[in-house]
Amino acid sequence: MPDARNSGPPRRFITYGAVNVLFLIVVLGMYAAGNSPNPRLCYLLALFALCSSSLIDLDGLNGRKALLGMFFLNYFVMFGITDLFALARGTVTDASPSLLSATEVVILVGGMMVLISYRLMLIASAKPAERGSVREWSLGAIIPVGFALWAVGTYAFYDWYVHIITDATNEATRKGLQSVSTYAATGYILAQMMQPLGILLIAYAWRSYGVKALSVPLLIMVVLQVLLGFVIDIKGFAMIGGVLVLVTITLIEGRVPLHWVAVAIAYVVLVFPLFQTFRAEIRGNRGIARTAVIENFSKVLSLVFSAEDRVTTGRDRTQTFLERSSLLGSVQIIVEQTGNGVPYQEGHTLSPILATFVPRIIWTDKQEVPTGQLVNKDFHISDSEDVFISPSHLGEFYWNFGWPGVFVGMSLIGGMLGLVGARCNLADAKTVTRLMITVVTIKQVIVSFEGAVAPSYVVYFRSLAGIGLLHLILARSWAPRQRPGLVNSGKNPLQLADPEEGKAFSNLLS
């Protein structure tokens, strides 16, 4: 990728044009090979042109415009990958005879609103000209707090999903919530919410301070999360440990760690199908409880391996990782049926955001809105009331308010991403607070874009409040001259981590 700091505008535009010409050649080749009866060529080319526009002025992998590039990468996977596969197979994803269907127009306009609002926010949030003192955590605070948050949060996940909420059904959830007090439920939720910050802090200390002794504990944490995620049947929890390490290295060093990318690819290819098999065979067909899975883990694992081929291949196979990532079908159903037999929600599914900071301890009758189940019920996708259908934030905005929801909702998302990109990017200054805010934004705004709006933003705003509280308690002001490891020039980011402090800690552990 071209770096805006090292290449002029003409070169960046040439690169952008060359990438789009290459994509055009690939698309035409796939069309010729697949002979699709209804190729969505215009939509695919327009979506790729929109999503690759970040190449024009991308200022590094941790700069002010990095979040925009990440969002559009995810956006293309969610809304373009299905049509690419359909083009290669010669199948149809949209019956519309026009160049662009209503769904495709909604997707393109939604992406444009994110692009415009992001850039406007960057203009409004001018880059500070001077660098004074910066508040940063000491290494002596980062490591203990990191291990404590991860350990407490991981135990909260384990106890909650193994002994309290023993299944994903509505009935199991109701019984589980009735078995604990409001105070206990609030504590479990807060601990789970802060858990990812623990592994993030350890990864930060490892890379920013160079504490090599943390590499083994960090690897153990990642592996344990995969194993626990397997048992509780939550793929997101299993993946988040490795993803956080990968993202931390990328944001701190401004480069993609290829060995961690290789691990991520191996996970998608080898481990993800096992999770799919576990859900379909062990949890679905056999109905084995999570406690029984722990007690007979080796036996369950052998059952999963023996059933993998049957579950992941054939006509009734489970979806692949990329197929599950696609949300084109969900948005298409919402756009086509909302207002045509399915009423607008008019803000109903978004209402839990208004009570973000009102704990259940105070508002005992606070109502949750199961958006995924409502999508399933209102659009008649499945007969089971326990099925969750991801609407995507874009689809939910349209479901609530139609076109005004797309314009306003997607503009707000772009504005939030732009504000974080302008104020918290790690190309200007590397601090643990900036890293936490950026990563939480990536997780809850970009990655969680596939799901319901309210759950994502309730967790997002609460996480920001928690990060702010930790910052007030633990961060101290450091001037550039106070840190021997500081890099502070016009070209380099402000980095407060002291390598000598990291070496001393490594020696202590050794």
Quick take:
The chain has 510 residues and is mostly helical.
Structural class computed from helices and strand pairing: mainly alpha
**Number of separate helices:** 20
> How helix-rich are the residues, as a percent range?
55-70%
Q: Strand fraction band?
A: under 5%
Beginning-to-end CA distance, first to last residue = 40 Å
Choose one word for the global shape.
globular
Order of helices and strands: HHHHEHHHHHHHHHHHHHEHHEEH
Biggest sheet strand line-up = 1-3
Q: If you average the pLDDT, what whole number results?
A: 84
For the report, how would you describe the main beta sheet?
A: 2 strands, antiparallel
Q: Would you count the extended β strands for me?
A: 4
Low-confidence stretches: 1-5, 480-492
From the alpha carbons, calculate the radius of gyration and give it in angstroms. 24 Å
